[in-house]
């Protein structure tokens, strides 16, 4: 394996890991507060993707549209489907999240039809760049950069703002936070809004890679992100980040290293490692207070 | 054996009598298994009128509708008008049987299903059990005697043969010696096309410089492309896949600066998958049974697409022609058989040679198109067009 090939795989892993990390963070922020494994996250991705496919005009404006659609979809999801079930047990919430997912995806199907929709993006999304003898898609660099920026913004928000502190308090001990005056509806809404906000850049990266969207476009990457969140540690933002990159690295490593006859079984190997990790450390790499209470 | 020895108990005899009565009453009520005794010939379509298959199945229905209109304009079948009815599978595999039974209860004589072995399989099995001929445009030979049964036919081209045509064109016409194969392992079709290509390309003298796999739903194929770049530079890339995942792969190949010719699957026909994202896509090729762009070498095909577009607009997918050809083939066989009875119609279909718009030929064991003249299509500067006709010297071995 040449130096260029090895570095190519490193870039692939970092880029894919960034995508999974963003999705994982988006899932984790809701789980931390509400203990909800939100399977409707895939539909949120689809909503953002179709917003991008349906819009024209300056790209900056379209980014804002995607952000707004993802945030509003997440807030509506919380207000309409999950708030009435706030005191329900986790199983009920899980079934509700499946129902919301099916409802949203079928709504998209009804409006946009089943044929894949092309997503028009600026040329630099499909541009190749060279750096120190290494050639890679500019989108890879955008993905990594965007993840770092989102992560820094998230850390700033959680540590330096009242809203962020409320979320952290609720994630640590929801009941205690409520007793201390943190409004439950407020903090859960913020968590969902944040989830939508984190999903939006992931949608941009994902659409930049695929160029097409279908109603169930978010299902597979979000499924991978769920695995990432689980191995990272449910509800832990650091864990989600680690899990996302680890899942990306495992996927790329098995794709690159498995002999051609076994290549189509890549996911079997990846999930075998996930299972092995969970067998050794069922609480995930980073254990959170939320999970400790849950268990 | 006990029956043969005349030792049938009274209870068993009663059961046999009741079963016979049920069977007889079933035959009487099913117009599918009887001759054309009713006042019309009914073609039932078990398709997704709602759900993800709508785009494909609507095109199928449009094609069948055109054929039925043409047949009725020429006096119908066996002196009866032909009627097309539908039952919604909701684009769900497990709803296929229900849709088939609904069509049977509405008096269908023949059934057409979604263009897929799995989605069409349920209704097809109902047809098979009810002595009705059943057609689809599935790319799998299992939609025939080796799977569904002897009354099942498909008007699609075998994907194994498609791989052979790809190889024939790439090596013989374009003189490409080195090929790289990217295989989408989501469906059997991708594997069969790639197998056919590999087998014939090597047979002709070409070299496969590398192979890799991916899934249609993969978020990225960046790793596969890194591997491809490290391989001995291929003259051509075979992409055994379909949109959306296949389209994503094309976008990523071009974004990675890989500009070699790409040969895709038949499913890449149409412009919807690249017109927004790769407006200037070039050097992309795929085979189809007909060109929908008005430049097909067969004037009858161009006339078909002209009337199709006049009635339904530009097709998103080209299944219309497959279902037009299916109804055409069924009508011809019913006329020859003088009945709509499945076994009699199938006997005629099994002798079809170069029939109708798609030059359909079947044998008692091969109910899929294995060697019709295929159109090699090209996409240059974002515009698809007819490039060449390729017909194999002999029928390739089917996997």
| Structural shape of chain B | elongated
Largest sheet of chain A: 2 strands, antiparallel
Largest interface (C-beta under 8 Å): A-B, 53 and 42 residues
CATH hierarchy class name of chain A? Mainly Alpha
The percentage of residues in β strands of chain B lies in: 15-25%
Largest sheet of chain B: 7 strands, mixed
Poorly predicted segments of chain A: none
Q: Level of helix content of chain A?
A: over 70%
Q: What is the ordering of alpha helices and beta strands of chain B?
A: HEHEHEHEEHEHEHEHEEHHHEE
What Rg of chain B do the Cα atoms give? 23 Å
Separation of termini of chain B?
A: 39 Å
Side-by-side strand order of the widest sheet of chain B: 7-6-8-9-10-11-12
Query: Span between N and C termini of chain A?
Result: 45 Å
Write down how many β-strands of chain B occur, each being a DSSP E stretch of 2 or more residues. 12
Number of helices of chain B: 11
- Average per-residue pLDDT of chain B, rounded, comes to 88
CATH topology of chain A: ABC transporter involved in vitamin B12 uptake, BtuC
Count of structural domains of chain A: 1
Task: Give an overview in words.
The complex is a heterodimer of chains A (295) and B (399). Chain A has 295 residues and is mostly helical. Chain A has one domain: ABC transporter involved in vitamin B12 uptake, BtuC (Orthogonal Bundle), CATH 1.10.3470. In chain A, 73% of the residues lie in helices and 4% in strands. Chain A has helices at residues 3-34, 41-54, 59-82, 90-112, 138-160, 162-172, 174-179, 184-210, 219-232, 237-257, 266-280, 289-294; strands at residues 117-118, 128-131, 134-137, 212-213. A two-stranded antiparallel sheet of chain A has the order 1-4. A two-stranded antiparallel sheet of chain A has the order 2-3. In chain A, a hairpin with a 2-residue loop joins strand 2 (128-131) and strand 3 (134-137). The N and C termini of chain A lie far apart (45 Å). Chain B is α/β, with parallel strands linked by helices. In chain B, 39% of the residues lie in helices and 17% in strands. Chain B has helices spanning 10-29, 54-73, 96-105, 117-129, 159-173, 188-204, 222-230, 245-255, 299-312, 319-337, 342-349, and strands at residues 41-47, 82-88, 110-113, 133-136, 152-154, 178-184, 207-214, 236-240, 262-263, 284-288, 374-380, 383-390. Chain B has a seven-stranded mixed sheet with strand order 7-6-8-9-10-11-12, sandwiched between helices. In chain B, strands 2-1-3-4-5 form a five-stranded parallel sheet, with helices on both faces. In chain B, helix 2 packs across helix 10 (319-337), helix 5 packs parallel to helix 6 (188-204) and helix 10 (319-337) crosses helix 11. The longest helix of chain B has 20 residues, at 10-29. The two termini of chain B are 39 Å apart. The model of chain B is unreliable at 1-37 (pLDDT under 50).
